[in-house]
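Title: Request for sanity check on Ion-translocating oxidoreductase complex subunit D prediction

Description:
We are preparing a figure and want to confirm that the structure record we downloaded matches what your pipeline produces today. Could someone re-run it with the sequence below and paste the raw structure tokens into this thread? We only need the token string, no images.
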Amino acid sequence: MALLRITSPHAHGPMSTQRVMQQVLLAALPGIVVLTYFFGFGTLVNILWGSLLALSFEALALKLRGRDIGFYLKDYSALVTATLLGIAMPPYAPWWLIAVGIASAIILAKHLYGGLGYNPFNPAMVGYVVLLISFPVQMTAWTAPRGVGEVPGLLDALQACFLPALYDGVTQATPLDVLKQNNSLLIEQLWEDNPIFGRWAGLGWEWANLAFLAGGAWLLYRRIFTWHAPVAMLLSIALLSAIFYDGGSSASGGSPLFHLLSGATMFGAFFIVTDPVTSAVSLRGRLIYGALIGMLVYIIRVSGNYPDAIAFAVLIMNFAAPFIDHYTQPPTYGHRKKTEQH
């Protein structure tokens, strides 16, 4: 009898890999809408151009590997990778920067290891880190949010992507950048002098984080993933930032609310950390995995060279996930725990 040769991840019933990826794309829509409102159409152009590239690179890799192109393109995994990377990248990135990031994610991080289910590192975060290390100037060129500067239109976004030499955009440091570089002003003064800080954690950023939180809550409701990793990550960030918050001096690392609602915190917690392929598998392992990511995010934000640390923290813990699983796996059915064995 011939056995079916089907690669992981395995799913039974209505919640197939294709269905899971569709749910993730739908859950990301509120955050994308908020980013588009506050920063213009750049994020949408990132996602659309990146999706076209991702499908092309995916088809090329499948053809070179002798796999069924139509079958594997239908699982939406390439579109999810392109969407996550497009959200993480600054709006109004040039076409070649997006192409390098997508190629790194699809070819290097995914198919080099055997495709979906075999990749040890999150593809979108690999693409992001490759770009951040290789092109730091382009990857930190965020535009001013609505309410601080003029938001570019759709034509500006298309020109910035496909005719970057002709686009003259105005960039501005993010709230995490400003806080990290501050060494003289109290937090209260910093908020008064910089309108980009908004009410809690950055004009536009706080609402984008709340939108991704809403999308993540919907994914939890749909049981796409468990609560363990994202909640552990957020609690870890909140606890550390509360412990080390000094009330707002010039050396302050920021309040818990600032860290929870700035940068890519909620996006990372619910759309990156929850990747079923590269995260820990056991429930206890997911708690440890998420908590350590939160700890690394806070440490890198406050003491490292990069203001937002989601990608680095996730990739480091992707490497450690098998080690965590080894020591947190529950006993198999019919066997006692190691401490009870004689």
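Thanks, this matches our download. Residues 158 and 323 are 45 Å apart (CA to CA).
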